[in-house]
Queue: 4 jobs
Job 1
Amino acid sequence: MAVGIGFRRRLDFLLLVIAILSAPVLSDLILSKVERQIDLTSQIARISSTIKAENDGSSSVSEILLAIPELQAKNLAYLTARVIEGKGKARTSGLALTVEPANPKGMPPALSFYSIVLPKPLANGDSVTLDVLAAFTHSLRPFPEKITQADIHLVLFQDTGHYLSPYPVKVQSLAVKLPQARIESYTKLDNTKNLGSEIKYGPYENLPPFSYSPIAIHFEANQAFAVARELVREIEISHWGNVQVTEHYDIVHGGAMSKGEFSRLDYQSKPQIRGASAFKHLVAKLPPRAHSIYYRDAIGNISTSHVRGDSKKTEILIEPRYPLFGGWRTAFTIGYGLPLHDFVFESEGKRFLNFSFGSPMHDIVTDSITLKVVLPEGSKYLSVSTPFAVQQEEEIKMSHLDIFGRPVIVLKKANAVPEHNQFFQVYYKFNALAMLMEPFMLITGIFFLFVTCIVYVHVDLSISKSSASYLAKLQWDEVRATVQQIQNIINQCLSTHEKLEASLRDLSRTGDVQACKAARKAADGLLKELSKELKPLIAFLQSTPPAAHILPKVEELVAKERELQERLMAKHSTIVDSHEKKLGGKETENRVASVQQKIVALRQDIEDLMEYVDEI
Amino acid sequence: MASPESTINGPTKADSKSLRNAFGGVIAFIILVLIGVLAFSIRLFSVIKYESVIHEFDPYFNYRVTQFLSKNGIYDFWNWFDDRTWYPLGRVIGGTVYPGLTLTAGTIWKVVNSLNIPLSVETVCVFTAPIFSAFASWAAYLLTKEVKGPGAGLTAAALLAMVPSYISRSVAGSYDNEAVAIFALVFTFYLYIKTLNTGSLFYATLNALAYFYMVCSWGGYTFIINLIPMHVLLCIVTGRYSSRLYIAYAPLVVLGTLLAALVPVVGFNAVLTSEHFASFLVFIIIHVVALAYYIKGILSPKMFKVAVTLVVSVGLAVCCAVIAILIAVVASSPTKGWSGRSLTLLDPTYASKYIPIIASVSEHQPPTWPSYFMDINVLAFLVPAGIIACFMPLSDSSSFVILYIVTSVYFSGVMVRLMLVLAPAACILSGIALSEAFNVLTRSIKFQLPGIAGNSTVASEESGSSSVVAPSDVSKTEKTEEVAKEKPVKKNRKKEKENVEKKPTPSKTERRLLVLPLEASVIAVLLLVLLGAFYVVHCVWAAAEAYSAPSIVLTSQSNDGGLHVFDDFREAYSWLSHNTDVDDKVASWWDYGYQTTAMANRTVLVDNNTWNNTHIATVGTAMSSPEKQAWEIFHSLDVKYVLVVFGGLVGYPSDDINKFLWMVRIGGGEFPHIKEPDYLRDGQYRIDAQATPTMLNCLMYKLSYFRFVETDGKGFDRVRRTEIGKKHFKLTHFEEVFTTHHWMVRIYKLKPPRNRIRGKTKKSKSSRSVSSKRDVKGKRNPWH
């Protein structure tokens, strides 16, 4: 099988090479030196090429074309070019150049072209050194495609041994860096060296344009093949001082599919051998001062995570619920808060968010990333600047206490690699006063709640002012007020009684008969006045029909009170009398005893009645 | 509302009193709010100690239903036929769940989201129970206030807010029917008492609605519909019939039954099953009694006597006929009209005799004595005092409370689960007891402290005796007035009635007879406070330690003091949900059915709604059969994965091996070739070298212990504390596809049937003969 596929591939390439060779030469550019290095230590194939180009023709050249075979082009995730100035150790790379897809005429269809626009046109005889970095995802093909837990994970990488370019190349070399020394097989061309975990091809000299010699490297790769099939990052800005980031991952192990049993026993006893192809954890590098970090999935918190932080970064190591073998999937969410002043700045009356685009996970491939920037409610004049092309939309999100909703900027990109972790900016205008709107809304809401309560209690809501029940109610209120008054009067009477009793006690202590008599007189006067006051009230109650059912009680109360008064007076005069006659304490007590009993009973009755009347 | 005059009149005594009343009202309100906060926050231990997650088994089902409801709306919910469970039968969810809880949480979610507060359904579900326990304590306040005044009400509410029995079912995350049902139960009782005390039709209607909510929420509504008729009957028998009783009862039965019949899961059961017959019988009786009282009112005593003899003779005949019909109806239904669980209540030995599936659930077992102390703690000692307090004096409402506690004590003695019904009753009575005790004691202290007792002390004895006479006096007048029908008088009587009830909540002067010595009362108050403190400490401990574990996450203290988390269940469910096909069927024992459907979103054969005994027995049979037969059963059911829970490695005791005997019993109940004695050696259940070959060869044993011996070389099971019997074996029809980190969940895949190989036709023939043999065996596998 393997041989068959390989053979067919090779045949394809052969045809490709024939097609390529028949194409015309594009311009007079000559690549005098090409050094390529393919880094296969992670699941992303990173090809960095240092290209020295010379203009050999008469006209000046302003762009250089890069050719990438179609097969690889669809896996191309990232491509940049920089001019290199200086030589040897002093070399510095300049700004990134514009790289755009090009479609030059007369080129073989199996190739995709990208053109690098040079900062200044290359005149005759001039040369420029470029550093081109291309990252390809999904280009390490697991082979065999299905392995068991105990098998080693082998992948196959295919590329060209000679630099594929529309220009002739004078000198070139290629180095392939592999993660481990274990190499199953690799294509041997002339001048191939295997230096442990590195394979070197070349140098090759004076090759024509479009020279192509396929190479295939089959090697062991045990690094994490973590692929986020979908990543949704939501960045929510609150001007109260927080930037909340929530990231939803849908992760799959992109390596060889696992087949057959999974034995936890084998995995636990010999994790290096019986589980080498699985990955256990992922590492995310968050910005410094990240706080309130959480890690959970649809069914709850996942407890296996560790956070380490220093002033430069916050590193979080997260373990999915189970180790991921080839083809296994998992989904989870991480979230964290960041201080606002680290990411939102103000310039020229506008605020802008400066945030990194890609996933903070170490060496993860993201098939589709959706970035949502939720701005506070009331933000206006939104604009976005990104370092690379993304798809952009806008939507509205309703959240806590929103009326109009918060504007959301949605950025989408397919096939992202860690190289995309560059800063992008979202500009917007936001009035700081709008921040106070929500608290103000709450305050008014609660205020109006209280106001309605007060109004409801105090306002007469009955519709018909002349209805019988309404009138009855009014009358009833009056009755109640009257009863209340009566109660007050009775209470005053009772307190007068207390005073009388107190005077009696004073008498027994001091023997001051005169004071006692004076007190009696005062009490008499007061009680009379009170009973006078009582009369019209009782009369009113008698005249109003709704009071009919409480009238007997009230009358009883008044009568009882009067009786109590009388008894008390009697008692008082008896005691004073006996005091004047200087009778013994015992005799006095005997004389008073019967009255005293009555008084107590009456008092009890009055208190009961008062309580009853109280409840009306 | 204090009228303005009183304030104008200056600082009189009445004014200060009303001010104190108003102040007392505010304080009571604040206390109630604090009690609500307490009830809510004491249940958050699980969130703080673990996380905001749904607990246990049943709540996962409720959560899943709520998710469905919030996603698809109410109409789809009623019509929901769930094909992800009970494969291949499915289950009609809309018609078989009590929708109260789901609708409540769904409504809360909807309201909250319409206010733009983006809470997830899960969050709402997690916090529904604590919110409703706050409501329940407020309802307990109202109910106790109706019975014995606000002081007792506040005490009862505070007790209920933290009673461990109720906490056990309503911690945050315990999203179960009981959480809202207890509130509904207490609130229904409150409205009943309120109606009984006021005779207002308004409250009677509310009562029917509250009863409707209770019917929606929990199967325990039958407790209400039996307890209230019992109380009505008690009132009638003890000569306490009044029109208020009629108003409290008759609308409840009519409206309540109509409303109950609206709930799909109850439907016509509301009139057809025996649980409801008591209410209809009492309904008839109360009408007869009402008629008798009416006729007595309009006839002269002599005529009445004649009428009574006439009616009694005719009535007896009619009654006999009605009773005969009733008996016939009851007898015609297979279980005599009683459901299995109700029969278990009447006859505690019923389940263990006939329905192992009910008996197998631990919460259906009778409780042990310690569990009373664990669940209601000191309330158990206070309840008798509360009962005594309810007898002094006995009113309609206090007799209801007494009846409530007596019946619920009986029920809690039958099933642990019903301890939950006992808890509110115990709280109410203890609240009454505590509040009465404090009343007496503080009054004694206040009376004896110098300076405060301004009134003459001589008067105490006489006044005491007079107050004892007073209530009976008033009730006499009440009776004489009852005949009169004028409205004001009626109202008056009502007031008086309240007065009678208010009597025991004493005014200062009233009960001077009961003054205790100062020292004794101070000490008693201190002891009571100590008792209360002990209760609080116990409740907090129970809430924090005993009842807050979500049971899907386990923790243990590791040697260095850190917390070790066992999250194996979710690990397995998460693996299932992400790495198997959406339509794969997973077989496991029914305990894990709800969790599998909710967390892993995979179809299961059986779940915790044990409605089909045969189906569960099939799974039990498969688990207790040898590998090949088990494979055949599972294969015929389209099962792809088998999930077993195994605690032998880490010592998790409630695993499938420990539940295995129930699988054998339930399987054997339907398929007689599974015999329990085959799995026992001399009546003992063991898995070591002494175990029977049947045991050592059954699927459950094999799936649990597959390659277990290689972990430590001996195969030492930490739960059973023994080495396993059969150590080295291979699986021929199953393959291990996933085992969690601590081996607590092991998932196996059924190997595909072997390809038919040419030249081996003989074998296929023989296999056909095997299948025909299986046909002969008939009942072994119902799905062939």
Note: Chain A has eight helices and 32 strands.
Job 2
Amino acid sequence: MRLLTHNMLASNARGAVTGYPLKLQVVKWSTKEVEPNADFLRGILPKLDWPALVAATHALGLPELLPETPPTDAELSAEGAAEEEGGPLRRLHRALLEIHIEEGTLVCPDTERCFPISRGVPNMLLHEDEVRN
Amino acid sequence: MAGCGSGLSGETLTEQGHHWIGYDISKSMLDVALERGSEGDLLLADMGQGLGLRPGVIDGAISISAVQWLCNADKSCHNPRLRLKAFFGSLYRCLARGARAVLQFYADNVKQSEMIVTAAMRAGFAGGVVIDWPHSSKAKKSYLVLTCGPPSLHSSLPKGKGQDGVMCSDDDESNDGSGDDDEAQTVGIYERNRPKKRQKTKKNGKGKAWLLNKKEQMRRRGRDVPADTKYTGRKRKSYF
């Protein structure tokens, strides 16, 4: 699971107020490089919950990867932004799309309910008594 | 993608350059997707429990042959209506304004179809059902095409495949009879090619031979029948 997906995922279970953001406990993660797409990153930027994304990188042990405040659209659309290693675009791209959580747990901030992640796939199945009506 | 299974359709999404999140209730299907090297992020989840995505983050949604499973009560505690409500409600919330969802489904019967469409409408979606090949039991496919937010010029329903001809509303099934697109809450059902009225027989009425025979029959019964002339049973100009 990439951090892009983690940024959008919430707990659906009974008792969760927002169920978001899910706390990340990482046992194993990997990186897989892909070509950055500036247009995509610019488009997704306004939809991201920045503090949750930063918290996720901290949970991975990468506190230096992202700044406390999000990059601006100007920074992402600047000439050569995609080529600049260590620049705001590459950092955002790496955080969102190149990191893959393989094993770990997602924890609901409201109820502490745990959702295990195995082989990169979070198990979000709820028991019958947890389903909201 | 709701009901992504082994990720076959997800590959097409990836080829088109999309980032996607795939939901499936079957761990073994997802394992196959992993073996295939699926690029999307997979979730082991039951869409009838809600999608669990925060509001307005998704640009589009597709589903292939999965939504109808929500109509089945697999366990005694399942209530299909609640499951449909959880799915469509959470789908509506997580879609960005103007985003579109296209869900291909197989409905066992009209009741199931209505259940699905009603649930979508109650969740706030606009749109309708497009049916490809409505008269082929093999090829027939129903697509629930939904939009979030006010309909625009671009949100009109596509034409279903089947035969040439015009899309028309099936008055028996549409909810308010007019399929009025100005109402955000309206869901019209458009069925491509209603069955045409039985065509007139190609024979163009009955032939001269039949007529002469009939007249002879009537004479044998003792009726008064005009004599046969060269005009009998002649093809006339059509008046209509």
Note: The mean pLDDT of chain A is 94.
Job 3
Amino acid sequence: MSYIPGQPVSVVVQRIEIQKLRDGDNLILGFSIGGGIDQDSNQNPFSEDKTDKGIYVTRVSKGGPAEVAGLRIGDKIMQVNGWDMTMVTHDQARKKLTKKNEDVVRLLVTRRSLEDVVRQSMMQQPTH
Amino acid sequence: MQVDLVCRICDAAVSGRSSREERSRSSLPTLTAFNNPNCSHSPADIKAHNFGQTATMEDYDVPSAASILASVKEQEARFERLTRALEDERRNVSLQLERGSLPSDMLAGRTTGMSNQPLAWQQMVMQEQSPSNQTSLAMMQEPQEVVEETVTIEEDPGTPTSHVSVVTSDDGTTRRTETKDHLTNMKVTKMVKTVTTRTVRQVPLGPDGLPLPEGSSPLGSYTDSIDRRYMKNGDRFIMPQATSTLTRSYNNYADSYSDTPDTQFRHYALHDGYGDVTENYGSLSRGVNYRPYRPYMAAGGYRPENSYTLPIRKEDYGHVAQPQVPMGSSTVDLNRSQPERFQPEPYGLEDDRRSLGQDEEEPFDLEPDYSTANRRTLPGRTIREPLRNGPRVRGYEDPIEAELIDERHPYIHGMYPAPLAQPERGSLASLDHMGGRRSPSIDSIRKDPRWRDPDLPEVIAMLGHPIDPVKSNAAAYLQHLCYENDKIKKDVRQLKGIPVLVGLLDHPKSEVHRKACGALRNISFGKDHDNKVAIKNCDGIPALIRLMRKTNDMEVRELITGTLWNLSSYEPLKMVIINHGLQTMTNEVVIPHSGWEHEPNEDSKPRDAEWTTVFKNTSGCLRNVSSDGAEARRRLRECEGLVDALLHALQSAVGKKDMDNKSVENCVCIMRNLSYHVHKEVPGAEKFQDPSALQGPDSSGTQRKKKDDAGCFGGKKAKGRKNGEHDKNYDTLDLPKRTEPTKGFELLYQPEVVRLYLSLLTESQNYNTLEAAAGALQNLSAGQWTWSNYIRATVRKEKGLPILVELLRSDSDKVVRAVAIALRNLSIDRRNKDLIGSYAMRDLVSNLPSGQQRPAKNLEEDTVVAILNTIHEIITDSSENARSLMTAQAIDKLVAINRTSQSARETKAASHVLQTVWSYKELRNALTKDGWNKTHFQPIATGTPKGSKSCKPGYDDTTLPLMEKNQGSRGCGSGDMIPMDEFGPDGYSTINQRDSNSKYKSSDGSSDLQEREPFKNDTNRKHYIRSNRPTVSLVDACDVKPQPVDSWV
């Protein structure tokens, strides 16, 4: 998942669609995010490459909409409703996720295990 | 209060100037900080004032032109009368003056401000005979009138002509002031230079015949420019008048400030110095002034900044106008260069380049010195000096007059900021300046300023001049010249200037030894070690130490320690510094500034360390010398109070959460260096050697493993194994009983220090500090003696492993490297090895380059090799760890390195890891399933035999180069690592050796099965522990740092 800024990234992603839950006035997704280009990426416990300033899922509330939809701790959010999340500030990401007028967010996420699966399958045909 | 404040600002400005001068050669962070506020505020103020004035003038213009003209004329007449009267008076008084009876008065006058001036003051005024001074004289005599006059004049501008003149004068004033300021700034240089010239000419003693042109003095040139300017503006003004006008405009300013005239004036001068004003008016005067002189600059042997000529000043002025910019930028530059130049060696005992920091600050030192010196010197200054010189000087009266003016006339000072420049006082140069200024008419006669800078031999010769101020000025000038100019440094050395400077260190006058020290500091800085050697060869080091003992002056001490720091960067001088200065530096600087007390007072709470420049310099010096091998380490360890004080300072840094500064970095580096090889070098170390390490390699292999196992699970089920018991006991704290508090070098390896280093590792943002703290742990955890056992266990118990693992993600190459090696040493402890294998593997692996693509942080070869060696150590004797290596997807990376790396060392190290992995038969199944086969794990090089025998030399090859490259400096890092591959007495090395032997041997045989049996049995338990662990250890690691932002959505 390490990448060079400015270069296209190819990752294995999963689509996750979360139906927001109405809680009084608030719409909640039931997870928390960390990271962003304005944050200290070194402190991100989930990223493999510590210079990765992407947005990561840091907590998922039990039984919440995110968990139901299959989001997991440590997932890296690549897109929200089509908006790129790999080069945004923390707050920009938060705003994209919490728009009041959207009941559904569609995420593109990637996680290590996804890559592992793909890698495993590719390993089945050793190259030499 | 107000007055005070203004004065201070004034001083600051002056010092800033002079520093600026310096600045051109040196960057002054402090100065910048100090000056900027002043600058920024003062110019603004002034501008506003100017504005106001201009407006006023215009308002009054139309109506009062005629009347103003009249009043001006009248004043001129009055001045003339006054002048005549004064001249008479002066004759009378001059005799008295000669007796030198006035100094105190003069001083008083200067300090208190003219308004208070008693008789003495007036007398001095009287002595002033020069026509140009008329105005000032008049004012002096009738202090109250001054104000009035000012007012009148201000309004005068009404007349078109006079208006012009006024404006001009305004300009002129501003201009002049600025120019003056330049002069002031240049003071150091200028004074020196002038001195030279004069001295040479008038003093027969002068070794150098200065080709000074006929009577053209700096003053002359100065005046010239002024005069010319005036003329340009309105020829109608004769010199004296011009002067008076100037003065008057000054007064105006003063009024607006409504301070005491003195204060105001100074304030004003200050403002002028910072060219906002200049910019406004600048084009006019500047053009006039400096074009004609330009050629001079080119002619000057030195760089333009150095040249004395007015025009140059102007040039400089440009600098002055935006002092912040140049300063700032230079500072920035230095800073920027730091990382590169300072590159801490991976195991960097060597800090040579850090001494750069020193020079960085030079400007500081100089500046403040200067201003302070002036101030300070004043009181002590005796009128006698000038008098004595008088006869030699061509115009006997000149000097005196100059002095008088200086002292008594704030206004003049303002206009010609030089007054603050007092330092010249003794020097003829300043006198000349004054004189020139004072009587422009005279000076204007010699319109041809053909004086020049003194050349280097002349300056060096002046160091031996009988007059102290000349010496100090020459030294200051030398410092200035040497700044960042290796050529000049070399020249000074070849001209035998260094012994003279060293000789001046013992000079009783603080001014002199300070300046000499400043020059030595600049000379000692740089890559040219010959300069350092030259200082040492004339016993400069003992002289510096002597001076350190003698002086209490902080600034001088900064210079001394700075010089020592510079000197300490050269290997051969380190021991000399230790021999002469270690205990002195410790007693005079380290202990007092660290806050440590021999016998702490029970009542008072422990003092905190003060991060002074002196402390920083001294610790930097000690840091450098601490890398000079075993003997140096021994001396430092045994230096009374040193280790105690350093530890105290660090603890206080941790307590105050102030861990990013250079002093802390220096202290940690010293500690790390002193921790190197403690287990071998410390007196009585034999007593603590771990018995298990002393056993033969054959038996110890098994035994050790057992012991470690026990340790690992001791907490859970401590069976009766002896070694396990031992470990377990430690958990309940079974440290050697201490009858008395630990002190001195014993503190280095007490388990208590672990917490200190871990705090630093957690909190510090300074990569060098991080590296050093990790290096200290690495050093302490190396070797086989009781204390390193304790240390390794303590790191675990203090939850240090997650902290270290966390740092594997650091962006800094050297931090990653130091941490990796520390983990390797820590994994001698079996339980540590298991934990590290479980929790660090992923981070270790992620630092490895993968085939096509290096990780985002492009780690150096050394680091990659260190990580590979750490991995190797961790998976040795632990199939479990080898398994986590597999699951961390390391195999493809390792294979890629093994096949494609450009680095032979990386290739070899990776190959060793792969061989080890393959040696675990129980893993082969999984490996094959993943598509790997035996060929992937065999050394690529066909010539490389496999097996332990071949492996060993290979190992040596990979690690040894580290050592060879940089023996002393790297010592602490790889030094500890290397023994393990050699047959060193080190337990570590033995173990490693043994382990690899057995492993490789066993990989083919069946014996290994037995050996590994226990592991397999324990696997479940291990898993259990692991599953618990992560929450504890890893979460801890994260918690240590400020939590990143985390938003619920």
Note: Strands of chain B lie at 1046-1048.
Job 4
Amino acid sequence: MSGKPRLHYVNARGRMEPIRWLLAAAGVEFEEAFLETKDDLKKLQTNGDLLFQQVPMVEIDGMKMVQTRAILSYIAGKYNLYGKDLKERALIDMYVEGLADLNELITSNFFQPADKKEEHLATVMDKATTRYFPVYEKVLKGHGQDFLVGNKLSRADVQLLEIILLVEESKPDILAKFPLLQSFKAKTSNIPNIKKFLQPGSQRKLPLQEKDIPRLMQIFH
Amino acid sequence: MAGKPKLYYFDGRGKMESIRWLLAAAGVEFEEKFLETREQYEKLLQSGSLLFQQVPLVEIDGMKMVQTRAILNYIAGKYNLYGKDLKERAWIDMYVEGTTDLMGMIMQLPLQSAEMREKNLALIIERAKTRYFPVYEKALKDHGHDYLVGNKFSWADIQLLEAILMVEECKPDILSAFPQLQAFKGRISNIPTIKKFLQPGSQRKPPADDKYIANVRKIFNI
């Protein structure tokens, strides 16, 4: 029996957000079961639903998939967002892994000690503008196409948009020196499935608030 | 022009080791260029070869590939070690991500203080015994095949062996409660390409020692 994919996670972005983005971009409707207490997590663990006792977990096509990368690769492959051959997939993977690194850097800011946060954030913004965004700007400039790889929408484009928006939440003018990323952002945001996901009321989650952290930590620790 | 893949990294395991394992298991000969000084590293940075200014870098099939997972995915796909369809790939990915997490914990140890190292070592042993190895033990028990996925040798098997040996370096009797994994270890170690890689003189690297750590710190100014 195949129904909609069902996402098991907390009601927050965390490690599930790229998965929500990719499903939404692929036009796939999905359900969400939110963990609200530690007991909710324990229940999944004791039921044997979590291969390595961890979430994210996505019920999809008869599997209880875990491990963010595995889930993203499966969805990308299934919905033709992973390039047409091994070499395109290699490029997509490189771009996506770079974005994942930047994402980790940004989200790790929350867990920095209060007196180190500002400095850490400045370092992260510096990396965004000197290590990561120039790469994608150059790729787009190099081929002059709308999408990063193979002149076709792929998971790399979806993830790049996600990260651009995330970084802009900390520094709204971060794309000032990246004209091609600016037009990439505009064009990609207008793709119907993505435009819908960017509207209020979608399943896209809000930025993490300080006040949410104790509740979330309590579930996982 | 197709030549042998060329690996750029330190003369140590780090993030390159899983790539060495996969190439070796696939029977692919490869060359290595070791970064031994800060100057060599800076030269590589300036050459524009490093997409995100980081190693590992693998020159393969005309590409300068970076990002460990991208490189591993490509090699696995190219040499038919990635299952026969999307669903087998999903299982291989899940299994590989688990062993990657476990090995990642071990990789951090040499960089930590003695106190943190002791604490984390205990955690690694506990996780290996209660979170990770039971999964692979059960998978093998349930289907009774020699290999984790699809009754065929895959990347998941190679990485599991790598993880088992790495944990055994921390605790030699770690497999005492895992008979399937013991048999698995014996079988996979005997596959000719892997057997060769496990012999002295191969390109397999030893565990990190103080000298290696000091060199890495020097090259990265940390």
Note: The interface with chain B takes residues 51-53, 61, 63, 65-67, 69-70, 73-74, 77-78, 86-87, 89-90, 93-94, 96-98, 101, 131-132, 135 of chain A (CB under 8 Å).
